[in-house]
């Protein structure tokens, strides 16, 4: 571990902008506009570790493609004109149709200060509760579950519980890829204490399963039934904590009776697996149940959460070292957004919109002219209201709903038909920004100042290190400016995020007096310089208390002060497979991309791990569908269609499929997965069921397949294409059902090198073509075409860009130069073939040995689960490329 000193004299401490682990980062300007990045050894989330995404942050602060000035109706504008237009349009709508005719759709990636100001403007001043956030797609079921059980939305424990537990149950969480540093903390803890056990519950096997002593391939949606079964077993085996229940819990009898009536066969798990799970849970005294989107993104998400919480309440395994339910937050400030009241059904500081005392306290504190009395529209309903014209103006900040909302094509149509759409983003070319009347350039990570709260309630500073590019402004500043222009000068007269933070901390003190848990009033008089230097700390922060766990003392925030167990009935996913749509489509994340790829897509290193949108299907299903390795397939649902590369694997069950959520129209012709996903929601939380839609899969009958590399961004027009950054340019996969007349002119249009010397080898009889573009003696582009997926070495060709074109048309390295294959270790750029060769030639038998031989896995460690899988595979996998 690095020494706990700053690595370089001018390194600044900040926080990673990706996942909810909330790692501390040391960022040092490199003098040429970029940053060098290291993990902060003193941050309590990561103690110096970073994953592949965090390590690559320096590459993503490029100003390429950034939006540098406001855009109105497609043309450059000044800030005054743009903001005056926003104000005029919003005021017009409000005057004509009332405050509920406008809406804000915001994001768990805004800093708490940005978020607080947006919420204040909408709820206190515009007077509507129509502000909702992408956290509705992410955490809403957990929020609802926590509030039902605890009377408040609180994560009871802290990260050290993961290290102290005897058993960690990971359900609906691919921690190895989505919270990699926490995963590594668990790996290290398990190594130090081999008696520690891990259970992974996920319909498919993932990188996370590698650490599991038991993997349960649960039927999609089965979690509530599984935890109901556990509750029954807990009771049957006498493992309840009778004192804790008597003194601190209500609803036990009803919860148990309902659980008794639930049939655990719906989990699809064998009796032996069910029993093994229950026995291990019951006999391990310190249990942490980690849950994430496999639980939340379900039409029974809130019930799944409460089924889990029931088991922890019944055993008193909550809020004690090594014990508790642990919801992993996704976004860097998903938790902060919950604290500032970003959801349409909440007020700031864990106060409730539907509670008259809470409303009036906030109204008085803000000196607010108007406060809504009931919850606003939740994300899915909000975009439906845009579609049917109830909402006539919407401001979308820091999120890309045309890609990330279910039934995404309907969201697109809704925004196309909306009278007035404003988008604040770092980039002007996102699928959502392209539909905006006004695009406002926002500063991004590395340029802005504020706070975020991670999964364990730790508040950390993000700090500005680089200057804003062009005319970009901070989100809080843009929103406050609109508030002032709307006539509320003093309420939005903020000069700095520190000032906003003080106000927010003061409001939390009032919330504390009203009996709420979120109280950081100890910081309400923090000075600008103290705020500047603020070290990470856990809430609450009051005169009496600093951080710590909740509920171990049996005190809850319900009216009775007791924790509530709920009777939970199993409900299957809403979409039911049929003859037309026989497969259940599960969706989620890959290791090196972040959501809609606006930032990770700019990094060549992060784009090499999985360079193309894909769909995992079982080998037997592939055989039924006539699909072979590397074929393309049409995926159709009742809502839309996509074309994806087929990845045949027994990690996934029969009848199921899995596809990543990341690809957008910037990177693929038809890779947007949310066009397929149904907008069924959980009735309590309003969270969409993003993990269980139904689809049909059919072979895409390509007349030809192609692969190209180019130093320019490719202008792909074919029926299928997917592009990714490479070190010196781009790589692009291609296919179409029609064959172009002339490959050379096709290549010129695609690769855009009109003056290049063209070297080509054409084989019309076999439908093949190999074309290289050479300018000034170096390779600037190459295209390979064949009737079946082209078997050239992607990484080798991408590496030839900008070099002498000697053997480019061979498509493979010469015999004396081995082909590294697809990147596994992003930090040291080590490919799968290199690793497989080293395992075979050097008889490597451990991940550590691979590290010694090749460096792979020795920096961020994100690829260690894949290295383990490569070691474990008795038949080394065929390289993905
Ligand atoms: N690399 C990377 N990391 C990220 C992100 C990213 O975009 N990229 N995004 C961040 C965000 S915002 C979030 S919310 C988190 C999400 O983090 P996770 O929730 O860990 O990630 P997902 O891949 O969405 O889904 C987790 C798993 O749920 C499984 N699953 C599906 N249905 C069920 C079910 O019915 N029951 C159970 N038990 N499991 C099921 C899926 O197969 C999947 O493996 O990741 C955060 N971290
Ligand atoms: N099918 C399916 N769909 C899903 C999910 C799934 O598992 N499956 N997961 C859901 C979940 S959990 C989540 S969290 C969402 C995420 O979905 P989104 O929030 O739509 O995804 P991002 O790509 O993170 O979008 C953030 C946007 O904000 C911009 N941005 C970045 N920083 C800033 C900033 O400081 N200010 C401003 N104004 N803009 C900024 C980025 O360029 C980007 O356009 O997706 C959801 N959708
Ligand atoms: S685990 Fe990775 S993505 Fe998450 S906060 Fe840490 S460095 Fe960032
Ligand atoms: Mo999320």
Quick take:
By secondary structure, this protein is of the alpha/beta class.
Secondary-structure topology with pairs:
Layout: E1 12-15, E2 24-29, E3 35-39, H1 52-55, H2 57-60, E4 71-72, E5 75-76, H3 79-97, E6 102-106, H4 112-126, E7 131-133, H5 140-150, H6 160-164, E8 167-171, H7 175-178, H8 180-192, E9 197-201, E10 214-216, H9 223-236, H10 242-248, E11 249-250, H11 252-260, H12 271-283, E12 287-291, H13 293-296, H14 301-315, E13 324-327, H15 334-340, H16 356-366, H17 379-387, E14 393-397, H18 401-404, H19 408-417, E15 420-425, E16 438-441, E17 450-453, E18 458-462, H20 475-485, H21 497-513, H22 528-533, E19 537-538, E20 563-564, E21 583-588, H23 604-607, E22 614-617, H24 619-625, E23 632-636, E24 641-648, E25 656-660, E26 693-699, E27 704-710, E28 720-726, E29 729-736, H25 743-751, E30 757-763, E31 768-775, E32 778-786, H26 794-800, E33 823-825, E34 830-831, H27 832-841, H28 847-854, H29 864-872
Parallel strand pairs: 6-7, 6-14, 8-9, 8-12, 9-10, 11-20, 12-13, 14-15, 15-16, 21-25, 22-24
Antiparallel strand pairs: 1-2, 2-3, 4-5, 4-16, 17-18, 18-19, 21-26, 22-25, 23-24, 23-26, 27-29, 27-32, 28-29, 30-31, 31-32, 33-34
Bound molecules: ligand MGD (2 copies), iron/sulfur cluster (SF4) and molybdenum atom.
The site of one ligand MGD has 30 residues, from helix 7, helix 13 and strand 21.
